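User: Could you check the structure of this?
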Amino acid sequence: MDLDAFSAVHSDEWSRLAELTKKRSLDGAEADELVRLYQSVATHLSTIRSSAPDPVLITRLSDLLARARSRIAGAHEPAWRDVTRFATVSVPAALYRIRWWTVTVMVLFLLVAVVAGWWVATTPDALASMGTPSEREAYVNEAFASYYDPGADFATVVWTNNAWIAAQCIALGISGVFPAYVLFSNAVGVGSTGGMMASYGELDTFLTLIAPHGLLELTAIFVAGAAGLRLFWTMVDPGPRTRLRALAEEGRALFTVAVGLVVVLGVSGLIEGFVTGSGMAWWLKIVIGAVALAAFWAYTIVLGRRAVRAGETGDLSADLAGDVAPVAG
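Assistant: Sure, the predicted structure tokens are below.
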């Protein structure tokens, strides 16, 4: 196809459509003409994409059609179907795509935590670094358990703090350093505390107070760290896409993860605020935490696999993300 000749033949229609999209008000005839021209130019864009994919012209017509579509349909109003789709398609797809990153982060985190705990529990100098004998005894015998004060206020504080940590891991993930630092420091902190509790014969207390909410809470932190590191790796190796395009697409998908984790951490906050420090039997507390974790992974794997097989990534749909110019390769 001769692109110059094609443009010369249809440029008047493109100009007229641009003129109509800029008019403050349209009468009935002009509104009909706008719709007709929109359909015609959409066909032109499809023809150019398939026959002579010129990036400049494609970008120009895509922008023109986006403005015309907005004029015809009005602004996009969120509807319940959008919320439902986001919760049942976008979020699980985004979580599913980073599942192996999450598992890798989890294994490394637990490995560091176990090593740190063993070191503190078996090395006098390491144990001494956790505080004076009186400080350690006060923490083990009183402070650790009393921290889990049941109530809505405590649940809210826990939720906002963990959500903030998760958001930072994702937002600053492109650095590669921040999520790695957060994960490592938290692993050392959790492991060292467990090691100190074990050295005083209170490992069972540590595990029964950590497990109910920690199963889901730590998984959410693993996911956030995995998302941040995935964004960093996208910058290092964008694949066949341009680096900017890859970062834009993955960044939007991982923002979906961040929104989903707000809900996940809200649930873990409720468990920590109303279950962990409650008078329930310890086994019931752990069962509640395990059920919450199982529900998260079922949601991720079942809905996520189905969404990814349908071509979903967690990114915005094409009409919201905008058109992109074709790239070679």
